[in-house]
Amino acid sequence: MKVKWIIGVAVVVLVIWGWVRVQAKKEQREFDQFMQDAERRATFGDKNAELFVKMLASYAKNGDISGVDSNLILEVYLPKAEAGNAEAEYFVGMIYFDRDEIKKAAHWLELAAEHGYKKAYYYIGSLYFAGLGVERDYKKAENYLLKADQGNAMAEAILMKLYDAGGYGVQQDKGKALYWGEKSADNGNAQAQLYMSAAYRDGIGVEVDYGKAQKYLELAAVQLDDPVWWCELGTYYLNIEGSTPGVIVDKEKGYKLVKQSAEAGVVGAQVILAGMYFQGNYVEQNFKEAYKWAKLAVDQGYSSAFVILGVMYENGLYVDKDLDKAIEYYKIGAEKGDLRNLGMLGKIYEQGRGVDKDLERAKYYYNKGAELGDDGCKERLSILSADDESMDAK
């Protein structure tokens, strides 16, 4: 965890160099004289003056104090921290935090928090949550994070995770997790937005609301710019087969998001795109495109893509008809757990599609699909079993 301290010039002057005050309305000449005096004091070894001059120069150049040697900041602030100044304890803690000296950071940040320095609450709370520099303790994390500034989306997100997981001194509480998750999401935290999207999608602690799930997912997807989330968001906009009531439907936007995701290598998006082109859903039917995207997904081992290529080889769609290849794809897909492949294998042997009719083998595949919960396989197995009983009766 890294942080940049964005400190305004006025704050630098008033806080960092406490032995002088500069009024914003002073004439340029007076300010120049003031700077000359600070530079002179710095040359004579005044570390406060040296720090002030360097921080002001860094702020003018970079907009922050990243250009200042952290050792100089420590040299000025460590004695004040050791004397019990809460603000100095915080600054020292943050210097160690930036330098990845986490145990030292935790020590000083906790002292600053105990002395009531509000900015320290989030940082020491997050360290107790993660178990960095201190032994993991959710109860201490909770106590500190609850004192953090209102609207601190990161603190709220950690509270969300803390209550969602429970343990380490805190009881799991999904209600509190959702409370803080919603606050954090509404304050712009992408991880909380994903959490709330999943909660509304699956009805976890709230009633299912696909509209809200879509809204939070879009907020997160815009921030994260991650092709995985483009795909999921795209499926909301496509609303394939109308399975998600209450969402905003935009076929063009949905197609664009899914295609961008597929082009970025997201295998789930490649399968969706292959299915769209294969069936002609939202796009003009195009078996060449269907093959292209299904093959990319198959090459990544995605089970749902095998049935598409199997059907294409079984029926000679874009590719030369090749039943052996079709069966090979169906079998691999079935081994990977995709139920549709089991059903297709059952039909091939039940109907004798290019192979000798073999009802026992058909029932074998239907039975495997039925055991895994496939309704189509259950139905065909039931029909074949009924036929067997009828034949036995005769």
What would a concise description of this structure say?
With 394 residues, this protein is mostly helical. 70% of the residues lie in helices and 0% in strands.
Describe the fold and architecture.
The protein is an all-alpha fold and 394 residues long. It contains 21 helices and no strands. 41% of the residues are buried. The termini are far apart. The longest helix has 19 residues. 70% of the residues lie in helices and 0% in strands. α5 runs antiparallel to α6 and α16 crosses α17.
List keywords for this structure.
394 residues; mainly alpha; 0% strand; disordered N terminus
Could you tell me the mean pLDDT?
A: 87
Question: What is the 3D shape?
Answer: elongated
Number of helices: 21
Number of strands: 0
Q: What is the SS-derived class?
A: mainly alpha
Measured distance between first and last alpha carbons: 77 Å
Biggest β-sheet description: none
The low-confidence runs, each spanning 5 or more residues with pLDDT under 50, are: 1-26
As a whole number of angstroms, the C-alpha radius of gyration is 32 Å
Which H/E pattern describes the elements?
Answer: HHHHHHHHHHHHHHHHHHHHH
**What proportion of the residues is helical, as a percent range?**
55-70%
The percentage of residues in β strands lies in: under 5%
